[in-house]
Design a protein that fits this description.
By secondary structure, this protein is an alpha/beta fold. It is built from 16 helices and 13 strands. The N and C termini lie close together (11 Å).
Length: 388
């Protein structure tokens, strides 16, 4: 089997779970004996563009002549059995789907976010969940609110891409959402259920969990939708600073807020960006991982990584977290308020024996449902259905 992986990598200065997922599924396909070729662009390239290419950015999310020609040439030289598409924005454009179909190659679209309807991919605006564009033929709310990078012109381009490529997305042979929750959102957006096969992110097996650690760990983007300010307020209200630590890893728009909190409160440790191996070590060292998201999480990689290392998770239950974090493997906060999250944190650290039991259950869940061999076997079964 031959698979062509197509992906526009997100900016390197910010952590991207999707970039990591693309790399790992590519490696696992190769380890399974699949011939894999990749076509990658990177948003980092934009910083080196000349005036002509910068001007092209106004249309590239809709159509990129450079990338459609390159993908066509690669399909003809490599001869893939399937094109595996991840993120086509902003450089590649969904037009490559039409290229693949014209060459007689089926397309599998991994769905890591909600950009099939929402221009920022988050269903989040002004501090709250927003689905104002769902069901609208023209996503004017996104343009009016400048939902893509805070820019009305850039939002207009992305909205135009959604409109122009509505029929293009219908040409996809199989949508591969990372969770049941995302699958339901696809159905709500008009995708036939028979075209959907849930495909969780791949997280490599770190082996038997380390002895149970101490403290609370947040590892992710420091952005509003990720609930980092909610977590800081809840940590203060929980009053556990004299007995344990909150460790924060990552970078983003709220970095200065986190840095300020860490300077004021010695029980908060901010470590900035760290490598995957370093984050893994911090997971081994902690007792509990927290995912305080305010938006509809698709299925946070940090949750699966926590389960793999036998660590339970505190979650606000938003999006996929409402199903993938349960009382068996963690704690679900009943609200997205600081008071509610503080109470959930106190509950988790008030019963260390119960936390260990939840951690063991989390590891068993990983072994049963999320081990790489299980996930890649599921993906290959989808692709075998495309064999000619």
């Amino acid at each position: 089997m031959r698979v062509l992986v197509v992906h526009n990598r997100y900016r390197s200065e910010l952590p991207s779970g999707e970039n990591k997922s693309v790399d790992q599924v590519t490696d696992m396909l190769r380890n399974a004996g699949v011939e894999v070729e990749t076509y990658m662009r990177a948003s980092d390239e934009i910083g080196h563009f000349g005036l002509v290419k910068l001007a092209e950015l106004a249309v590239r999310p809709i159509y990129s002549l450079e990338d459609t020609k390159a993908v066509k040439a690669l399909i003809r030289s490599f001869g893939p059995d399937v094109v595996q598409l991840h993120n086509p924005y902003p450089l590649i454009s969904p037009a490559v789907i039409r290229v693949a179909k014209a060459e007689g190659v089926p397309v599998a679209q991994f769905v890591h976010n909600f950009r099939f309807v929402c221009v920022n991919g988050l269903y989040f605006r002004d501090g709250r969940v927003c689905q104002d564009c769902l069901g609208k033929r023209v996503p004017w709310p996104a343009v009016m609110h400048g939902c893509y990078r805070g820019s009305m012109p850039q939002s207009a381009v992305m909205a135009s891409s959604l409109i122009v490529h509505r029929s293009t997305w219908q040409m996809v042979d199989r949508f591969l959402p990372v969770s049941d929750f995302v699958a339901e959102q696809l159905v709500a957006a008009g995708v036939p259920p028979e075209k959907i096969a849930v495909q969780p992110n791949i997280v490599l097996d770190p082996g038997e969990p380390a002895p149970f650690g101490e403290g609370l760990l947040f590892a992710g983007r420091l952005d509003e939708e990720k609930g980092i300010k909610l977590l800081l307020e809840a940590w203060h209200l929980a009053g556990l600073g004299k007995s344990t630590m909150l460790t924060i890893v990552g970078d983003g728009g709220e970095r200065s807020t986190v840095q300020k909190a860490a300077r004021v409160d010695p029980s908060i440790s901010y470590l900035g960006l760290m490598t995957a191996d370093q984050v893994g070590q911090l997971l081994d060292d902690c007792a509990v991982c927290v995912v305080p998201s305010l938006f509809f999480e698709t299925f946070s990689r940090s949750v699966i990584e926590s389960y793999a290392r036998g660590r339970p998770v505190i979650s606000t239950g938003m999006g996929a977290m409402g199903r993938n974090v349960t009382d068996e493997v963690g704690w679900v906060c009943p609200t997205t308020s600081a008071v509610g999250l503080a109470e959930t944190i106190r509950q988790a650290f008030g019963d260390q024996g119960g936390a260990r039991v939840r951690g063991m259950a989390a590891r068993l869940l990983y072994e049963r449902s999320y081990r790489p061999d299980i996930v890649i076997r599921s993906l290959l079964n989808v692709y075998k259905g495309f064999e000619r």
